[in-house]
Amino acid sequence: MKRKTLLCTSLMLIASQLYASDLSIHGSLQNYMGVLPTQDFDYSILQNTFDLTLDYYGDNSAVHLSPSLTYDFDTDLSVGLTEAYIDMYSQDVDVRIGKQQIIYGKADGVFITDVVSPKNLSEFLLPDFDEIRLGVTAVKVDYYRNDATYELVWIPLFTPNTMPEADSIWNVNGIDFGDSTEDIDASLENSEIFGKYSLYSSTIDFDIMSGSMWDDEPTITTDGDFTHHRMGIIGGSFSTTVHHYIIRGEGAWNTGKYVNATLEMDYLHYMVGIDTTVNSWNLSAQFIEKVYLDYEDNTSVDQWQNTITLMANKEFYDNTILFEIFTYIEFDEINALIRPKVTYSLSDDITVMAGCNIFLGDSGTYGQFDDNSMLYTKIKLSF
Question: Do the strands 122-125 and 219-220 form a parallel or antiparallel pair, or are they unpaired?
Answer without folding.
Answer: unpaired
